[in-house]
Amino acid sequence: MQRARLPLLGLRAFEATARHLSVSKAASELCVTPGAVSQQVKLLEDTVGVPLLRRKGRSVELTDAGQVLRPALTQAFQTIELTLNAIARRPRHDTLKLCLLPTLAEKWLMPRLSRFHGAHPEVDIQIMTSFRTIQFEAEDVDMASFTGKDLPTGLEGVRLFDDEFLPVCNPALLQHYKRLAAPRDLARTTLLYSVRRMDDWQRWLALAGAADLRPQRSLSFENSSLAIQAAVDGLGVAVVQRAYVTDLLKAGILVAPFDLVARSENGYYLVWSAARAASPTFRSFLQWVLKEAGRNAA
């Protein structure tokens, strides 16, 4: 096959799927939908003329052809990655690269970022979003987000905010349902949530003494940002992290029908490798983040 006709998207999709033996994990790594991964793999199979994967429910297996192709692709992508990292590690001028959870980037960082740019107009920031764990020794990333009880071994970091969550909704929704005086009144509403935080409603309702509540209906979303937007649009009542909706609550765009806030032991961190912390640009951004984290806690 001629190099100009190589199906690069399909090769990436197949290599990630074959490595994880999971379409959903490959989609998470590549920051696309599982459907997009399956489509690219199918196009690759059509191009080479042989099946590469066997689908078995939610898992996949490699065909004989897939077993031949997978190690060659993995080695090739590793070579490309190492070469690009070596190039990217050359001195960069006033550029900071962040890889964050999508909702953290959209709902926590972005509303604040103008304050940093106002104080440091010379600094360029590149923001990527992903749910995967960043390997700092192999990737050209300065800072990344992390959620957990404690910092990962070998990394430094700052705790941005605690994992606190509560129900929120559009003010007009309260008028529609006339009253939401008690948590059990939520049974008449549509409950909104992120599929990545599927236990939040159960935990909040248990804390509110309504663990057996069954809602009229529910809607799930890929991430908390979509659940928040659905609440803003009046689709129902969302359970979301308080730090993501503080400004929306202050502006009256959303309201919290109940004062009860649930908490876990986890925190949301910004983490980095010590080797990344030497530049003045990094230190300036870190000082600003510390100030913003303190502002968020106040």
TrEMBL record:
Keywords: DNA-binding, Plasmid, Transcription, Transcription regulation
Domain of life: Bacteria
Family: Belongs to the LysR transcriptional regulatory family.
The UniProt record lists the keyword Thylakoid: no
Domain HTH lysR-type per the UniProt entry, residue ranges: 11-63
Ranges that cross the membrane: none
Keyword GTP-binding among record annotations: no
Pfam families: HTH_1 (PF00126), LysR_substrate (PF03466)
One function term, GO molecular function aspect: sequence-specific DNA binding
GO biological process annotation, one example: DNA-templated transcription
Ranges in coiled-coil conformation: none
Naturally occurring in which organism (per UniProt): Cupriavidus necator (strain ATCC 43291 / DSM 13513 / CCUG 52238 / LMG 8453 / N-1)
Protein name: Transcriptional regulator LysR family
